[in-house]
Each structure stands twice: as C-alpha cells, then as structure tokens.
TrEMBL record, chain A:
It catalyses: N(6)-[(R)-lipoyl]-L-lysyl-[protein] + pyruvate + H(+) = N(6)-[(R)-S(8)-acetyldihydrolipoyl]-L-lysyl-[protein] + CO2. The pyruvate dehydrogenase complex catalyzes the overall conversion of pyruvate to acetyl-CoA and CO2. The keyword Protein transport does not apply. NCBIfam families: PRK09212.1, PRK11892.1. Coiled coil: none annotated. SMART domains: Transket_pyr. It comes from Brassica carinata. This is Pyruvate dehydrogenase E1 component subunit beta. Its EC number is 1.2.4.1. PANTHER family: DEHYDROGENASE RELATED (PTHR11624), PYRUVATE DEHYDROGENASE E1 COMPONENT SUBUNIT BETA (PTHR11624:SF111). Transmembrane segments: none annotated. GO terms for biological process: pyruvate decarboxylation to acetyl-CoA. Residues 37-212 form the Transketolase-like pyrimidine-binding domain.
TrEMBL record, chain B:
It is an enzyme of class 1 (oxidoreductase). Residues 69-365 form the Dehydrogenase E1 component domain. It catalyses: N(6)-[(R)-lipoyl]-L-lysyl-[protein] + pyruvate + H(+) = N(6)-[(R)-S(8)-acetyldihydrolipoyl]-L-lysyl-[protein] + CO2. Keywords: Oxidoreductase, Pyruvate, Thiamine pyrophosphate. Its EC number is 1.2.4.1. GO terms for biological process: pyruvate decarboxylation to acetyl-CoA. It comes from Brassica carinata. The keyword Oxidoreductase applies. The lineage of its organism: Eukaryota, Viridiplantae, Streptophyta, Embryophyta, Tracheophyta. Its cofactor is thiamine diphosphate. CDD domains: TPP_E1_PDC_ADC_BCADC. This is Pyruvate dehydrogenase E1 component subunit alpha. GO terms for molecular function: pyruvate dehydrogenase (acetyl-transferring) activity. PANTHER family: PYRUVATE DEHYDROGENASE E1 COMPONENT SUBUNIT ALPHA-2, MITOCHONDRIAL (PTHR11516:SF56), PYRUVATE DEHYDROGENASE E1 COMPONENT, ALPHA SUBUNIT BACTERIAL AND ORGANELLAR (PTHR11516). The pyruvate dehydrogenase complex catalyzes the overall conversion of pyruvate to acetyl-CoA and CO(2). It contains multiple copies of three enzymatic components: pyruvate dehydrogenase (E1), dihydrolipoamide acetyltransferase (E2) and lipoamide dehydrogenase (E3).
C-alpha cells in the first residue's frame, strides 16, 4: 500500500499533480480543469516550502530521511535539503523529542515526526512540561517554535496500542496549539501555519486520509498560503442540525449529511481544523441557527473533545437548544483487533445519522 | 564453514566421528535417542565482564531432531502468515520472525515453562515456542474467537500466561522494564526462576532499558536481557542508530555475552549459562546475532535499506534450519529423505491449522466489552453512539 509518489519540485505554482495508487479515492465533484491533491502530497509540499523559506526549519524523526518517511510524508526531503536539515533518529522518542524541544529553545524550528502519536506518550513529558509551559514559566523569554506531527487515531486493524486518538489529551493543555486537518487544503494551510507559528503545535494527521485526493485551489497551492489557527470551517451549510467534528470524521459527517438530506434534514457540518484554540464562536453561532448539536470524534468518549464542545454550547447557547446535545465517539474500550469488533468500536456514518435524527426528534 | 565436532559420551557404535554412513537396514531409528552427546558450537562466545561458557554443548539426537522440526514449523507458520496477509486475511501490522527461529527454539531447550519470557511485537514464534498452538496463532492473526487473545489482540499481542509468556508488546522497548518487573516478582516470591526479556537492536537505545537495567543490577533481579540483533531497527541499520553497536557491552557494569543467534546450540548454551548466572548474580545481557528475512513488517519490503544479495547471502550461509539439517545429515542422525518427510509433515500441519482457523467464527459483538476490568463493580461502558449502546460491564 505504498503509493508511488513523484518527487515534487516546488516553484510556487507550476505544479502538476497525480493521484497516488491508493485504494480509496472518494469521488468529489469539481469543475473541469481544477486540480486535485492527496493529503500526503499536501503535507510534503508544505514541509518542503517551509524548509525552503526558512533555514531554521529542520525535520527529525524515525525513517524520515533515507527511508523517505514511514508513510512517505517526508519523501524527497533528504535528497533535496541534505542530512543537515533532515535527521533520521534512533527509536527513542523521549530522547529525540527532548532534543527537538531544546533546539527550539535555542531558536531553531524543528518539525518532529512521531511515527504515530501513540509513540508520543514516550515523550509526553517533553511536549507538556518542556514545550507547552515554557513560554509561561519564563515570562516570555523562552518560546518554543516546534511542531510535533504524525498520524493520530485509528488506522485499520492495528490494535489497542496503535489506535488511540490524542486530541483530547493535548488540547486540554494550555500553551499548546492542537490542529487536525481533514482535506488537502487543510493539510497545506494548517501545517504551514504550524511551522511558522512561534508556539508549540501538535499536528494530528490521519493515516487513512493520506492517500485521499481533494480538490485544491490555486490559492492553496501558492507557497505563501496559510490558514488561520483557531478558526473552524463550515464544510456544508445547513439549517436543521449542526454536526461538529474533525479529521477523518469530517468525511463521515459529510456522508451523513447527504443521507440526512434525502430525508429532508439539512445538516450543517463544521470542520474544527483547530482543537486548541477551539472555535467556540463558530460552533455556537451555528447552533444558535440550527438549535441542535451533534458532536463526533474517533477518540474515547469520556473527557473527550466532544465533551468540551457540548459543555461550551450548553453554557453559552442553552436557550437556543431544542434538543439534548449528542456525542458520537469511539467506544469506551481499548481498540480490539478483530474486524467486526473494530467496526463496533469506531463511529460509523449510520451512528451520526441516527444521532442527528434523534436531535431532530425524527428517530425511526 | 567449520563443521561441529562430535565427541562421544556413550559407546553408541552408530555415532562415530567419521563420515561413513551405515546401511539403512542396520541404522537405528534415532528420532527418540536421548543419549547425551556433545557438539561444539561453530563459533566461540565473546564475553564482557564474565567468563564465556564452554563451546561444548550437551544435547542428544532426539533434541537436535526436535530443533529441526520446531524451527521448520515456525518457518512455515511465518511463510503462511505472509500469504494470509497478502490475501488480506490478516490486517494491520504483521512482523515476521523467519530467520530468527534458532533463538526461540534454543532458548526453550535451556529453560522451563516456569521461567518467564516477554518480547516485542515480533512474537509469533516465541508464542509457538512456549507451547502455543498453530490454530490459536492463525485464529488470532485472522481475528477469530479461537485466537490466543480471543481475536482482540492481533499479531502484536499474543500471550500465554500458563506458560509464563507475557506477550506481545507494540511499543518499542516497553517490554524491558516490564520484564525486569517479572524478574522482580520471581525474586520477591523466592522462586528459582528467571525472566528472559527479548528486545531488538532498535530498542537497545531506549532510555527505559538503562533505567530498568540499573535497578535490576542494584536489586540483583534474575533478569536476562536478550538483544535480538537482526541489524536493522525498522529501516535503519545498527551503525546509523547506535554509537556503540556492541550491545552485549552496553550494560557497562552488567556482564554480557555475544552469541551466534543462528546456531541453535549456541543459543541453548548461552541461555543455560545466563539462567545460572542470573539466579546467582543478577542481570546479564545476551546479544544474539541474528537476521530477519522479511522486512520490519509486511508493510516494509525490506529491500530499500538492504540489498537482496545480503538477504540471500545470509539465507545461503547462515540459515538456522539448514545448519541443523547439515548437522543431522553429517552425523547420520537422519537421512535427507527423513528430513524432507518431516518438512512435508510440518507443512501439512501448518496448512491444516490455517484451514481450521479460517473456519473459526469471529468474536461475538458482546466481546467488545469483555475483559475491561477483572472487577467491574457495575461500571458503564458505551458504544460509538452512547444513547444506542450502553452496557454495564459483565
């Protein structure tokens, strides 16, 4: 399942793109002649452009260089920038993450890759105590312009120790910024913003999205393109129920919205893009319009991202709500391996549809 | 390559240190011959902070034949797993052990089922070595209820507690402090048992190894750290990840032994030596020089960071099963045909197990919520839609 990826030459605009040999490429309608880009290529191009623009930016992680990246996100970067900008590390997250944070203290701009965020737990002390809190503890003397990136959440059949979503954990920490792209445009704009940002950013990607193609605008292909951190995107306008989610679940929510539309329910789908800062304004404005809220995430339900969104809406828009708030999340169990159990442990489109209908008092 | 020398400890006229083979009608059927014989390892041991054990390994014809069969079974299991993965009947990650069989088999020959073993995600053959059944392994790999973890663990999470096999761990290096903890419990309970803690050359650089080893040495824990050095940590060669790839020396104050991990008799000898040492003197490190034919996992072709010549070279010169075959043939313990027949039997055994596993059902949906806790006290758990699926834990 390694897609063949062409090395990208970045010269600001003249890019021709090709789909990877990924199994699942969802069909999206787009105007004839407009471009498509995989999330993988989007991330690769974002890192490439930021490395080109700023010599302080460097990449560090397991298999990022000679192997071309475990998931090929850093493909071609070692050849282009050399071993002084792209570092293959031993399998020692606590060590190399600490080293990355130290380099950021001194003004460099590391992009540290975790092969998956499950392995970030080996280094979490450095992410929280060494990176997130430094600017505060030093009264602004030591800021940490570092990006921690890698795949987060469930993949397919990788079991309990390799499937956890860390959005809720990291987003609860003041001092961190936590981003979660969905589309290729999100991937490019948010990663470029993250690398340029002077604060520590946890950048949660999704392995199953890497091979998916999305239409991408000329503006998004420009090397100066950047998305604001802390602003959600309304992916689909609607008036009957607000569905809020992030990452891969945005795709599921959009499919759910299609199904709901067939039954006369108009769902508004919000793609958070940023978990911290959380765009409470956009979420609440939407709920004040629709009066109904369905939140969706892949991670464990207790103390999750959805819990925070529900709390915010209940606190700020209580009198606008016409139905109880809804949470669709991963099951409250470690991720089982067996395919049938794994399916039960993760949100499915029908779960989102069911919750939306409940919120509209249209169950069954 | 130097062949082992055979010396006699009995007057068995059929085992002579010459090349003459006796006519089939007079050759004794030796598969159950447990008369002790001694065989020299092909290479000496290299030691650090201790005296190396003797190269003369006590064994028997029956034992060497069992080595052949057990390794052949492990080899076929891994090859079958490769096919099943490509047929998408195994999902997720699948890390294969073919090439490293001598380690699992030689270790078992030196220890008991009361000694504990803990390892990484490359655990299929270790499970088999601990007495695990092929059907249970294939069922687990295919996510069936019959699996050794009821289908809930997957390839990286095989366990067999009744044989003191504590898994099956996905996070590189995590099993090392865990293994030292098993040794702690053995000492605490005054058992005369030891724990073998298996890890790779990639994990050898993990800080938690040094933290746990320091404590194990301070407290004289019967922990034997076994570095399965297959020369690549995922796609990175040892010289690119370790300033000192002399893993048997990395314990500094902890003694170590470097072993030819492709020689099952050397592995047996080293493990026997290590167990005696650990029971008296605390931790010791065994570095097993071994090789994996497959890439890191089924997602890794294993050919971008090493040449095909290197892989085939090891297969030709150092393959652990071939070495035992040569030993059996040159010492007249079995004929070529007998060995080929044995391999055919093993192949059938594996094929039958695969077929049987394919027929096994997937776990019940209710299994999603079982084994959360031992003691549940009426705790709730939820499915993806918490208003649709809410259970009180069984």
């Amino acid at each position: 399942m390694w897609g063949i990826l062409r090395q990208r030459g970045i010269d600001g605009g003249g890019l021709s793109l090709r789909r990877t040999r990924s199994a699942s490429v969802s069909a999206r309608s787009y105007a004839a002649g407009s471009k498509e880009m995989t999330v993988r290529d989007a991330l690769n191009s974002a890192i490439d452009e930021e490395m080109s623009a700023d010599p302080k930016v460097f990449v560090m992680g397991e298999e990022v260089g000679q192997y071309q990246g475990a998931y090929k996100i850093t493909k071609g970067l070692l050849e282009k920038y050399g071993p002084e900008r792209v570092y293959d590390t031993p399998i020692t997250e606590a060590g190399f993450t600490g080293i990355g944070v130290g380099a950021a203290y001194a003004g460099l701009k590391p992009v540290v890759e975790f092969m998956t965020f499950n392995f970030s737990m080996q280094a979490i002390d450095h992410i929280i105590n060494s990176a997130a809190k430094s600017n505060y503890m030093s009264a602004g003397q030591i800021n940490v312009p570092i990006v921690f990136r890698g795949p987060n959440g469930a993949a397919a059949g990788v079991g309990a120790q390799h499937s956890q979503c860390y959005a809720a954990w990291y987003a609860s920490v003041p001092g961190l910024k936590v981003l979660a792209p969905y589309s290729a445009e999100d991937a490019r704009g948010l990663l470029k913003a993250a690398i340029r940002d002077p604060d520590p950013v946890v950048f949660l990607e999704n392995e199953l999205l890497y091979g998916e193609s999305f239409p991408i605008s000329e503006e998004a292909l420009d090397s100066s393109f950047c998305l604001p951190i802390g602003k959600a995107k309304i992916e689909r306008q609607g008036k009957d129920v607000t569905i809020v989610t992030f990452s891969k679940m945005v795709g599921f929510a959009l499919k759910a919205a299609e199904k709901l539309a067939e039954e006369g329910i108009s769902a508004e789908v919000i793609n958070l893009r940023s978990i911290r800062p959380l765009d409470r304004a956009t979420i609440n404005a939407s709920v004040r319009k629709t009066s109904r809220l369905v939140t969706v995430e892949e991670g464990f339900p207790q103390h999750g991202v959805c819990a925070e969104i529900c709390a915010s809406v209940v606190e700020e828009s209580f009198s606008y709500l016409d139905a109880p708030v809804e949470r669709i999340a991963g099951a409250d169990v470690p991720m089982p391996y067996a395919a049938n159990l794994e399916r039960l442990a993760l949100p499915q489109v029908e779960d989102i549809v069911r919750a939306a209908k409940r919120a509209c008092y249209r169950s069954k | 390559m130097a062949l082992s020398r055979l010396s006699l400890r009995s007057n068995n006229p059929f085992l002579k240190p010459t090349a003459t083979s006796l006519p089939p009608s007079t050759r004794r059927h030796v598969s159950t011959d447990t008369t002790p014989i001694t065989i020299e390892t092909a290479a000496p041991f290299t030691s650090h902070q201790c005296d190396a054990p003797s190269r003369s390994v006590s064994t028997s014809s029956a034992e060497i034949l069992s080595f052949f069969r057990d390794m052949a079974r492990m080899r076929r299991m891994e090859i079958a797993a490769d096919s099943l993965y490509k047929a998408k009947m195994i999902r997720g990650f699948c890390h294969l052990y073919d090439g490293q069989e001598a380690l699992a088999v030689g270790m078992e020959a030196a220890i008991t089922r009361r000694d504990a073993i803990i390892t990484s995600y490359r655990d299929h053959c270790t499970f088999l070595g601990r007495g695990g059944e092929l059907v249970d392994a294939f069922s687990e790999l295919m996510g069936r209820k019959r699996g050794c973890s009821d289908g809930k663990g997957g390839s990286m999470h095989f366990y067999k507690k009744d044989a003191s096999f504590y898994g099956g761990h996905g996070i590189v290096g995590a099993q090392i402090p865990l293994g030292c903890g098993l040794a702690f419990a053995q000492k605490y309970s005054k058992e005369e048992n030891v724990t073998f803690v298996l890890y790779g050359d990639g994990a050898a650089n993990q800080g938690q190894l040094f933290e746990a080893l320091n404590i194990a040495a301070l407290w004289d824990l019967p922990a034997i750290l076994v570095c399965e050095n297959n020369h690549y940590g995922m796609g990175t060669a040892t010289w690119r990840s370790a300033k000192s790839p002399a893993y048997f020396k990395r314990g500094d104050y902890v003694p170590g032994l470097k072993v030819d991990g492709m020689d099952v008799l050397a592995v047996k000898q080293a493990c026997k030596f290590a167990k005696e040492h650990a029971l008296k003197n605390g931790p010791i490190i065994l570095e097993m020089d071994t090789y994996r034919y497959h890439g890191h996992s089924m997602s890794d072709p294993g050919s971008t960071y090493r040449t095909r010549d290197e892989v085939s070279g090891v297969r030709q010169v150092r393959d652990p099963i071939e070495r035992v075959r040569k030993l059996l043939l040159s010492h007249d313990i079995a004929t070529e045909k007998e060995l080929k027949d044995m391999e055919k039997e093993v192949r059938k055994e594996v094929d039958d197990a695969v077929a049987q596993a394919k027929e096994c059902p997937t776990p019940e949906a209710s299994e999603l919520f079982t084994n959360m806790y031992v003691k549940d006290c009426g705790v709730e758990s939820f499915g993806a839609d918490r208003k649709e699926l809410k259970v009180t834990l069984p």
